[in-house]
Amino acid sequence: MNDLHNQMPSAPDDTRPVMISVNGVTLAFGPKVIQHDVSFEVKRGSIFAVMGGSGCGKSTLLKSMIGLLRPTQGRYLVGQDNYWAGDDASRVHIGRRFGVLFQSGALWSSMTVGENVALPMQMFTRLEPPVIRQMVELKLGLVGMLHAIDQYPSELSGGMRKRAGLARAMSLDPDILFFDEPSAGLDPITSARLDELILNLRDGLGATIIIVSHELSSLFHIADDGIFLDAGQKTAIAHGSPVWLRDHCTDPVVHAFMHREQLDSSSPHGDG
Ligand SMILES: Nc1ncnc2c1ncn2[C@@H]1O[C@H](COP(=O)(O)OP(=O)(O)OP(=O)(O)O)[C@@H](O)[C@H]1O
Q1: Domains of the chain: residue spans and CATH
Q2: Measured from the CB, is residue 64 less than 6 Å from ligand 1?
Q3: Which of 180, 229, 236, 251 matches a 20 to 30 Å C-alpha distance to 64?
Q4: From the alpha carbon of 229, which atom of ligand 1 is closest?
């Protein structure tokens, strides 16, 4: 099959600089290779989707991009910095540019929302407490959660926890945000609101966003680029925006995945 069919042609007017460059990366747990020879570029200001069936290695890829799993081969460039080439301190330094939102929101339950958002600033900056308070209010205002500043995570709904987690991910003004299944467990309306919030963050703050998600409707709406990882071939088999892959990709695995919603809605046993 002609590989050009599985690769979105570069838009001639896309002059955005490359933010992250991934070259020939192999990911493995011991002898078990999860993905090999994965290469792609994430443009500044894009919302980049990591797609693929369950267990193909999407979260593993994200983990290795944020420093939790060293690739066995290949390299990640973040700007000009070779992420895994340096020591832990250099990775922490580069990682100061990252904000991460995990599935659960991962808030500390013993701290209020405001204290959760303040924590990274207290740990990594020398800002005075009143300045931190102002910054916390600003971040919570951005995600529409200022009213919950003194509440505990257990008092929040799932969507509110996600928004609070997002405020904490933005605590140190990252220019690169990683989201792992941000809309998991949310109802469709809350999930749609989160999509709008993610678009606002990209447009308002100029952030670059890498997102792992199963929610096709959300990906079609927000992501403008992406990669499709295959569990069988253990590598990336298509590149492009979710909409482009849905409409143009000829690979049968990608095609079936990107048209899954139609199958799901006509089958009571769709696995979503
Ligand atoms: N710590 C680990 N040790 C060994 N194998 C692991 C570990 N973490 C993940 N795996 C395996 O790596 C593969 C990829 O897992 P990963 O969670 O990255 O997939 P995924 O595409 O994110 O899946 P899903 O969409 O279901 O969340 C799976 O086969 C999983 O069992």
Answers
A1: 16-100+157-257 (3.40.50.300)
A2: no
A3: 251
A4: 21
Q: What is the DSSP letter of 35?
A: E
Q: Which atom of ligand 1 is nearest to the CA of 60?
A: 18
Q: Are 164 and 105 in contact (CB under 8 A)?
A: yes
Q: 252 CA distance to ligand 1 centroid (A)?
A: 23
Q: Compute how many other C-beta atoms are within 10 angstroms of the C-beta atom of residue 138.
A: 13
C-beta of 29 in contact with ligand 1 (< 6 A): yes
Residue 124, CB half-sphere, CA atoms under 13 Å: how many?
15
Segment 118-138, tens digit of pLDDT = 988 888 888 899 999 998 998
Model pLDDT for residues 149-168, shown as the tens digit of each residue = 999 988 988 888 888 888 88
Cα dihedral 21/37/211/220 (nearest 10): 100
Phi, psi of 268 (to 5 degrees): -70, -10
213 within ligand 1 shell (Cβ under 6 A): no
Nearest atom, ligand 1, residue 63 CA: 18
59-87: b or e for each residue (b if 16 or more CB lie within 10 Å)? bbbbbbbbbebebeebebbbeeeebbeee
pTM value is: 0.87
Closest by CA position to 99, among listed 26, 166, 195, 41? 166
With 0-12 / 13-18 / 19 or more C-beta atoms within 10 angstroms meaning exposed / middle / buried, residue 49 is buried
Residues 100, 177: Cα–Cα separation, whole Å? 6
Closest ligand 1 atom to Cα of 62: 18
Q: Is 57 in the pocket of ligand 1 (CB under 6 A)?
A: yes
Q: In this structure, how many other beta carbons lie within 10 angstroms of the beta carbon of residue 39?
A: 14
